[in-house]
What does this fold into?
Amino acid sequence: MEDSFIYEDTPDQITAINEIKDDMERDIPMERLLCGDVGFGKTEVGIRAAFKAVVSGWQVAFLAPTTLLVEQHYLVIRERLAQYPVEISMFSRFRSRTELKKDVEKLNNGEIDIAIGTHRLLSKDIMFKRLGLLIIDEEHRFGVQHKEKLRKLKSNVDTLYMSATPIPRTMYMALSKLKELSLIRTSPKARLPIRTVTVPYDKEIIKDAINREIDRGGQVFFVHNRVETIESIASELRALLPRISFKVGHGQLPEKQLESITLDFAHHRFDVLIATTIIESGIDIPNVNTIIINRADTFGLAQLYQIRGRAGRSNRRAYAYLIIPSKLTEEARKRLETLTEYESLGSGYQIAIRDMEIRGVGSLLGTRQSGIIHTIGFNYYNRLLDQTIKNIQEQKTGEDIQEDKVKIQRLQIESDFYFPESYITNEKERLNIYRKMLNFKKEEEFITLENELYDRFGKIPEQALNAIIFYKLNMLVQKAELESFSIKKGEAILELNNSKLPAREKINELVNTFNYPVKFDSTGNLKITFSIFREKIFNKRVLYEKSLKIIRFFLNEK
It folds into this structure.
């Protein structure tokens, strides 16, 4: 069956399927997250896992969030397994009640091997006879309540989660080793990155973008996520481009009509599909190489990334236009900046990490979707959890744990800090540099490292310089034995342990040396906030350098 795959397996696909097979053969149930970009071959990996389960005598539940995606999976899987005696059925609103009733009975009797469906598979009347594998596609589209239902369905069942951009909670479960993680980062041959631009609503820009795509024989998605105003947008576009054919698709249309519109678009019977987010999952049309997303600021980061991935599924250059209003919220600005920053192929993993930093990871074992991670900082939270797991594994005593807590310091800065792959391509090399910086004891060692990086790899990019400053700050914070140090919105916040406070004169000297507006907060530990910048737009590098000076002064006085 694997040899009949018409494309060449990518190295990442081979690694992922081997990891999944190994998991399926172990005594404990598989909990694995498969993270790979749209169109990178996750479905094929899922099909091979499903086939392995079926030939071993088990049933498979293949769960997807939308009827369109379920239908696409059904057609693909049926075609891939056509020459094998595998019974496959689809459970969605595209089927009649009579058909569904028959199939539910067959499924409960164990006559259906692979059940592909939407939330319908979570209904009370569905009782698998011998469920062995649960595959959840577009995992980020299922809410926490759905996942609570899934827990009951999948106790002692191998589970494979597939997503280009997992939600923060799932991503963190993978990073915390509560789930195993497989990455597919190798793009299909000849695939090009999607050019992403952020623009205001301008009829001329929209007109040019659509005309350019139609003139090269392509098609266009126009995403407008408001059913009540979608027809007025359609009328506006038809008046603007009278020679181009448009159709509207959204979830409130009758099933047959929506299916007909989707098939007509796939067969190029019209040029532009004006749709809501129903196109986010499952629409795979290689001829669509321009996508226009209206009011992009109202979408989540993972959602934007998924929608953008609907274009550019061929070897042509694709374009994504994110239309935004004149005023943006801070969070929306961060999301859009992230999307335009990570436009290279295979960026889903980085997008998911960034989403986790923006939103928090939520409650790992409860129903809360987003958490309060911003109050303690992702980096510190990460180390706390890691340290706690080690303490339990090593069965440390209370005194040992207290010593470890002293070693863990709290540092939070707003920027991304990492060495980009484009700067240092070797992953082991990057990890070695991070480890090296963690063990530095003097600032001079950072200067030596910068000179070494410049000699070996050339000019140091912004993110890498931020990483160096982060580790330098981390070292100084540890030396100064500060309770925490954070930099956000132009402010540096120093938290001192009340049992280790310096003399009042020294604190006064610290405040007077740096002529910034200062706030004191004595609720709990003493916090001193230095308002380094009052303006909304400021130079982050200058902010970090000034923060370094504050800690240096405090360390010297201490």
In short: The chain has three domains: 2-184, 194-342, 409-557. Residues 2-184 form a domain with the Rossmann fold fold (CATH 3.40.50.300).
